Structure formats: C-alpha cells, structure tokens
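User: Can you write out an input/output pair for a complex, sequences first and structure second?

Assistant: Here is one pair. Inputs:
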Amino acid sequence: MTAYAEIAVTTNYSFLRGASHPWEFAGMAAKLGLAAIGIADRNTLAGIVRAYAAVQAIEDNKPKLLVGARLVFVDGTPDILAYPTDRAAYGRLCRLLSAGKLRAPKGECHLALHDLLKWQEDLLMVLMAPRPDEKERVDNSPKNFWNKNLAHEDEEVGELPDEIHASAPQVSSGEIQSLLENLLRAAPGRVWLGVSMPHKGDDRRRLREWQRVSGLARVPLLATNDVLYHCPERRELQDVVTCIREHVTLSEAGRLLEANAERHLKSPDEMAELFHEAPEAIAETIRFAGRVTFSLDQLKYNYPDEPIPKGKTAQEHLEEIAWQGAAKHYGGVIPDKVRFALEKELVLIARMDIAPYFLTVHDIVKYARGQDILCQGRGSAANSAVCYVLGITAVDPMQIDLLFERFISEERKEPPDIDVDFEHERREEVIQHVYKRYGHHNAALTATVICYRPRSAIRETGKVFGLTEDVTANLASGVWGSWGSELKEGQVRQGRLDPFNRIIKRAMEAANLLITFPRHLSQHVGGFVLTRDRLDEIVPVGPATMEDRHFIEWDKDDIDTLRMMKVDVLALGMLTCIRKAFDLIRIHKGESYDLATVKREDPRVYDMLQKADAIGVFQVESRAQMSMLPRLQPKEFYDLVIEVAIVRPGPIQGGMVHPYLQRRKEHRESGGTKKFEYPSPLLDPGAKDELIPVLGKTMGVPLFQEQAMKLAIVAAKFTPDEANGLRRAMATFRHVGTINNFKEKFVGRMVGRGYEQEFAERCFKQIEGFGSYGFPESHAASFAHLVYISAWIKKFHPEAFACALLNSQPMGFYAPAEIVRDAREHGVEVRHVDVNFSEWDNTLEPCESGLALRLGFRQVSGFREEWAKTLLASRANGYRAVSEVARRVRLPKRAFIILAEADSFQSISMDRREILWAVRRIADDDALPLFAAQRAEEQMEEEIAPLPLMPLSEHVLADYQMLRLSLRAHLMFFLRGLFRSEGVSDCAEISGAKDATPASCAGIVLVRQMPGDAGVVFITLSDEAGIANVVVWPKLVETFRREIMGARLLLVEGRVQRSPEGVVHLVAEQIFDRSYELERLSEDVTEAPSFRSQAVAKHRHPRNVRTVPKSRDFH
Amino acid sequence: MADFDASIHEKADIGFLVDRLATRFGSQRILAFQPNDTHIPEAAWLAVPAQYVKPTKLPWKKLREPGDAPRRPLRLFTRPEPVTLLATASGAQHLRWRKVQHAVAQCEGPERIAMEWWRHETPLPARDYFRLEDGEGRRYWLYRTGVPPQWVLQGIFA
C-alpha cells in the first residue's frame, strides 16, 4: 500500500465549515491507514487538543498527528497552511494567531500576508492552489497585493490599513507563481504548493498546470484532498452547515454548496490513483510529515513559578507551611492518623514535583481569607490532608477517610485539580487578584465550547430546509429546556407535526448530528490557566469581554489533557448567604461565628432535617432531597455526606438507592449489629472478601464515584492504565463516546470471575451515571459541611437565615415568596417594605419576640439601588406624608409611583389607594416653572375625598406584581371557593391524605423538574395551605406537554401516593391549565361562575397572569 | 425563441419588441432564459415567458477562463439519450449512439456532480461527466451514473 499523509483537514472547529469532529477524523485516519494526519482549522487551534487526545487513544494503526492551522487572510492572499516544525515555531504560530484575534472583533481573526512573513520562521507553509470554483468570486481587490511594499512598524499587534481588507481576487497561476517565489525568498526550503483533485472535469489539465508552476517557482507539489468531512456520507451535513453559515435555505444555496461529495478523507491507494500523473506529490506528503517534530507533548507541565522565600525550594516551602498549618489546626499535637497522611502526601508531591500547584492555590485562598471572603475547596482536592492543613479544604482527615489516590495518582502523572468555591458576589475580587499577581501574559481565562443544543440545532436546520418559523418553533419548544439529548419522534408528534414527513425527518436527522457540534468559543466564567512561559506562545488568545483580559482557545478538558495548571475560581451562592447570615448574627446578636467555629453535631439540627424541614438549606432543599430526608433520617455528619451524594443520577441510575436505604433500615433496626453479605467472585474464592474495604462504609452498596473506580480495579481487575482510561471516559463521555468499550471489559471480567451478571451490569450503569454527575466522597463531605452549617443557621437563627437568603438571590431552589412563607411558618415576623424603615437590602429589626425581617427595596420590581440610597440619605427622623417624601427626596416621579404600587407607605397610611392618589399629585419630573413652586412649603394639606377600599384580592395581586410575593394572603386563597365547589383539595389536605386516595389539587406552579433521561416530570404546586409535589409519568407528559410547559396555575387530578416514611406525592392522571382563573382576581371574586373547561384556546397572558412569578425549571 | 441580451440601454426597445411579438404569438411562446444557481446542468437555466421576466441579481456566470476547456456544451439535449461504451479486444473504445458506432479518440473527465439530495426521497447517484472526442472530431458530453454504471449522452459541443 502506498504511504500517504493528509495534510489539509478542516474539522468542525472551523465553525460551520467542517462537518466532522476531530476524533472522527482521527479514527478514520487510522482505519484508512494514513501515515499522518494534519489538522489545520481556519485561523484557530481550538480543536487540536481534541484531535491529540483522540489520536493518543488509538491503539492500532495510530497515525502521526501534525498540529497546524489554515491561515485565512483578509488581504486577498490565498489560504496558506502553516505547520510548525518545533516548539519555538509553534510559539510563533500562536503569536501570529493571537495578533490576528486581538485586533479583530470578538470571534474573528484578521491576518495579512505580512503578519505571516513576520512570524514564519521554522513554519512549513503550504500555499493552497485555488480550486476552479474559487475563481468566480467578485473581483474588486488590488491584485498582487503581496508584491506591494508594505512598510509597517514592527508592532506587536498592529492595526491593518483599510485598503487591505478585500475579498479574494481572481487568482491566476502567474500570480500564484509570484507569491510562491515571494514566500520562498523569506522561507527557503519551507514552501509547498498544495493541490487537490476536486473532480471538476479538468483535473488532469489543472494538475499539469500546477506542475508547471511549481517547477518554475522551484517549489515542490504537495498532494491533498482539502478535506471537510471524514466520510462521504457527511456531505449532506456539510451542505446544511454551509447554508447555516450563509443564511440561505438549501434550495437557495445553489453553487455555494459543493458540487460533489469528494472532500472526504481518502485512502492512500485512492489518493495515489487520483495523482497517478504526479506521484512525487504523494511521496512529498510523507517527507513533509517527517519534517514536523513538534507534538503537543512538548507543552506539558508548564507551571508558573511561585514567589518562594529566598533560599528555599517550592517543596521545602510547602512542607514548612503544611506542618505549621497542621500544628495550628490540631492545637499543637498532631494526631498520628493525620501525621501519617501528611507524610505520605508530601513524599508523593515531592516525587511528582507538583508543590508549586499547592502553593499557587494556597496563595489565592490566603488572599481571599485576608479579604474576608468565604471560600472552600471542593472536588477531589478534598481528599488531601495537605489541602486541609493549608486551609484550602474543609474535610478533616480525622473524620473522613481520605483517598489521596483519588486526588493524585502517580501513575496518572496528572496535575492535581483543585477547585475552590468563593462567595459569588465577591468572586470578581479574587479574579482581579489572580490577574495582578500572575500578569496578563501568564494568566487567562479558559474557554468554554458552546455547542449546538437541541433547540438551536432544530431551529437552524429547520430554517435551512425551508421550514417556516412556526414549525421550527414548534419542534424546538417540544424539547425540554435546552438539555434534551435528542429530538424524539414523540416530541415531534406533540407539536402536532408528522415526524415522518420527509422534510421534517431530514431536518431532525441533521439537527441530531449537529447537536454537539461546536458553534463558537466563549470565555469560561472562573476557570484560569496559569503558565510559566508566555501564554500566547502556548495557545492563541483572544479578547475577553472585560478589557485587558484574554481567554485562550482551549477549554478545561483540553487543559487537563495537556497537564497545564488550571485553577477554578468558582462561585457558590450559599457561601455568600452564609457570610451574610454570620454578619447579621454578629451585628444583631453579638455572636461571632465562622465556618470552623459553628458547634458541630447538634442533634436538634438533625431532628429538623429528618422532618424534611429544609427549605433554603444547601443541597438538600430540592424536592428530591426533601423526599429522601425522611427516608434517610440523618443523625450524624456522615449521613449528610451520603444524603448529598445519593440523590444524584449516578446512584439512582445504577439502582443503588433502594438497596442502600433498605440495608440502612435493617442495620438501624438491628441496633447496629446486622452483618451484610457482599457479592463475591465465586470463581476466585481467595478473594471472597475483596469488596468489604471498597463498599464497607456504605453497607455494600456503591454510592460514591471513587467506589466505582475501586470496583473496576478490584473486581474487574482493571490495570491502572485501564482505570485511568475509564475515569477519563467517565468524565468526557459526551466528547469521545468510548465508554462502551469499557463496558464490555468491565462486565465481562467481573462475570468471568464469578460475579453475577446483573450485579456487574448495575455497577457499570452506575459508573455511566457517574460520568458527569457523580460525587466523590470527599466532595460530598465538603458540601455536607455547608449543609450542616446552613441548617444550623436555619434552626437557630431563622430570621438571619431568611434575610441572608433573600439578599443573596438569585440562588437556590426557591423563589423569595417561598423563603418568606417558610420563615413565617417558623415564627419569623416579616414586615413589608416601608419608606420609613427599609434599606436596599433586607434587614432585621428588633421586635417583641426578638428580631423581625424587614423586606428591603431590592425586593421591589423596578426599584433601583441608587434610589434607595437617596431615600435613606434624606430619611433622618422619618417621613410623615407622601408630599413630605416628594419634597425632601430628589427622585423621579416613577420611583414614587413604584413605591406606592408596592404599598411601601404603610407607616404613613394603610390605605393603598389613598397613597396612590397622593403620589399621582406629585409634580412631574420636568415640571413647568409654575409647578416648581410645589417644591416649596405647601399651603395646606388637601382634603382627599374618601375612596372605596381596595379589596384584599387586588392588594395581593398588586403585591405579587410589585414584589413577587405577598404578606397578606396567597393568590390561591381567593380562588379557594371556586375550587372547593369543584371538589378540589388544598395542599395541606393532600399532605395528610392516605395512600391511594383519589384526589385533585390546584396551585401555582413553583418548580418544574425533569431529572435524568427517564422522562418523568415533577411539579411543585403551591397554595395558601402549603405545597404539593406532583409526579407525571412519561406517557402523560407527552399528552399534557402544553399544560405542563406553559401553565402558571395547574389543576391536577390523580391519586395520592404516600410512602411509609410519610413522603407524599400526587400521581397525576389528568392535568388542566387553569391560568385564566387568575384573570378574575381583580374583578368581583364572589360572583365567579363555576365552570370547568378543558378547552384552553390560545394562551393569553393578561396582566394578572403575568404577575404570577414564572416557575423555576430544573433538570 | 429569442435570446435577449441584458444590457440596460436596450431594455426599453426590447421590452417593446417583446410585447409586440407576444401579442402576435402569445406570451407563452416568447421566452427568455433566466439563470438558475445550481450545479445540475439541465437545471442551470429556465425558460420563462419574456413578459414576466424579472431583472435578476444573478449574472450569467462565466464558467470558463480564456484558455480553459469548455465546461458545458452548446447543445444540451432536452431528453438525454442512453448510450453504451464498448471496449474492443485491442483496447480501443467505441461509443455506440443511435445504433452508430464511433471510435473514441480522447476524453477528459470526470466532472463529478452529485444530485441535490434534499429534493429526492431516496438518494440519486452522482453523475460523472466526460467530454469525448471521436475519430471524426465530434465532441460529445456524456455522463456515467448508477450501479451498474449507465452511460447517458446529454449534449454535443459545436
């Protein structure tokens, strides 16, 4: 077989041009037996690491990967492929691309030929001979631009003169020849002419012409197929993306589309056949590939230098502060367990030479602590005793068995991955510090690759196929949120469209392929990459939204693959909430706490959690968690660790939750004496008890991510390499899809050793579920710590808790209305917003029973923070009349109107209508001079004729409209009469009903949730008596999708399901959208006719319906 | 059928002529060619009644540079005709069209044109177009398609 290397591959990281993933190319290259494959995307290196990872994973026929880029110019120069020969040349390529990106608008890259000439040293350059159809472009550009003498200053990043921007001119072979000669002068021996055979009819003729040109210019010919996709079947998708890019439909695209399907990766024999009249061009590809000695391996381990005190190495410094920290933590006497762990870890750290990593993170955390910003490490880093004594994580080795191997493994040779959560409101300060500390050349944000999601995919492909907007919107809205993984037939039917209609079918197929295609790069919110060498010599950088900040082209997975240092500066809303609560407690009660000094293991906190009284508590406040709490009955810290980890797709998918709960119950009931049997390998009796150390802590049931890994090693006898591969596949299964290879190995080997097939498959299912959602034990422990603290605050300082929660929004599972309702149920007095007492934030005030929660101006829709400041500044002794407020406070009239509509003048008058009237009398903002006199002292108070009192329902409605909550009554209260007459129960009655009772319930939709892929939907309804949890099975979801997705007020008929522990759900049988009932609330409520109608025509959204806050939707 | 030049300054006169002819012969018999943006050769132009011709943004594109081979024949058959290509024992090729055999002197190609997949229920095979010259200097434009391959003659060069 001939030897051939394909040098010109365009992947889908050339957005909307390539039609295959880098890993698909890698796989196909191996399959075809190519000697090497050159990935050259348009002005970017974004996909290169994916290609690298994919090639690394290939076992047979691994092709050599050539790293390069296809330079596309704005000055009319034809495309040139640039391949660096060595590390330094690669750095230059990155600088070149960075220069182009930094001078252009976001997402673009503007390059001119002289940029290339500046940076071309040791770059191999392939000028791509223009294809016949490219000659047809409009010619309005200066010709022979590259021959012009462009004397520009040697700037780092220069502006391009305007005349350079031109569209591609008609390029003749003579011009190509002169360009080649130009390039050759600058780069002798490093220039090629790349030619492809596009099946245009005159291929041979053209080839002869290019041979002639290359001879004259003394530049060798290089054979390529100028590839856009990995197999011919992808031509259709390539046409679709072309249409998306050019904003045309398929019928309109005409000759924008390729004429044939030849631009796929071809086998060496096929290429040899195509180029049989120029075999030297084929051989040249091998010579070319041989000259590239650069590989991404050479970029690894580029850690920044840490400022270390003179005379010490990084390791020495680390050891010193670690032992110091330990002594401080344990009061001078370090327990043996900890000492042993620290010694072990420090030895490993020294061997792997990763001390700088810990020092870097320690530095950031120290800065944050110094600024009084709450922070806590998470993830697998919580497995490290060193991290604990350095104050990075909060998981005490005395409490939790740390699995340091989970964090760092010598075999894996990976850098540690330390993520730190910071208060979300103050995270920006930490980010600023990082930039200042490391400098803008060595620190940058990582990218996130924004991919096509089902909704956007179907919308775009639908347009391309000529479907009208309403049809595509219909198809798109059938997809749940934006996280559905595929468009299913049923969803199409629900939209009343025929899934077998040819066009719709095709559009869906294209959309399904398009999902997971990268669309563009965006900056990641808190992920940083820090390097020793200049960042823009390692990866091209582009401008971030904030000035002076850059972000790189690679995302977090890419950085992991290349072993670069990544620090995640994450934001956690709950940390902000906790700190605010601590501040409030300190100010109002004089008690000072922080994350470490809260009294642990108070049984009253656990009692509260056992009753599922957990609204607002970190992690356990969701519906699913609250159903689990009564079943799990947490009594101690480790129970919280389990609680956090167990209600996740991983254990649920693996079917491990019920067995665990069952065993727990038995264990408790037996007083702790029951012994469990562990599955064992029947064919290997010597290892009968091998699963006990792995699963002992969780009673034989694998719940944590690392237990899954250990199972692979211990039960399926995976080698460390294989386990690594499995771990990587677990984490990136969305990208590479190799997890199935592991399934066979895992299940096969376990069964081979005598385990039951069913057990082995369940274990693997859990591993799959762990892929993106599993929790390591240490991470669960970090979170459990915050669960306890937030629960403690809720139990003992409910007013501070509610106040802090409200002030930290948006966060958490519940809207302010529920937080307030919950606080009141716990005896907290909540006071309405008031011009005389409120501040911008929610605050606490002294009251008879202790402290009351005063709602702040931030809760009022449309009110601005600066207005609140102004109001407070002039408040002094208080306001006694509306006119007085208007006089003393300089605010636009609209501000007063908003305050009046939000009933914020209750300390002046309880009559809302009277206040509204008074406010309207305030002079307009740009008052005529005549009215300016009103700013002066008023003659006398005007007598206002008495107005009819506002009915309660209108008050409540107005409250909802302005504050999204009401302290007076629940909206459902006014509809109770109506629903009562229909036989509908309220939420409290549902909670108290017996199992299997038929019942119906109506309420405002608070939360909708569709966890996992099962298709089951959970809805939380709220009324004046409480909340009810509704379960809708998948079949019903299809039937009632409209109601479920759109309604604000639902009526659900079904059957009560009550578990032995008292967890109640209403299983839906019929669902009705009753949002229109909300319309009647501002009219006379008592006369409401009782009628039942299923026919809800079009969805109307009158003002009243809109006042009901939108439900929160979760996956 | 009249073929009209699109130059602006003649437009008014031509329009007048078209109207007179159309009144005499019927508007559906006075046709103008409109370009259509597609790779498919027989669909690359449309004949529409001249009176209803809208000025189009699409210029007739030059497919051919001076010195290049012609890409499209002057005459395209409305009904392409099946032909066969035979090879004799000596290796010489013959084109058999309308029962007459022609010896093949040279050929150039293939120009591969794939069909517009979004228009058809089942995918149609691509066509490989060849320019063929016979022993007497006549030039043919034919394509090969399908499995097993069929040959179809679609046009003749001048």
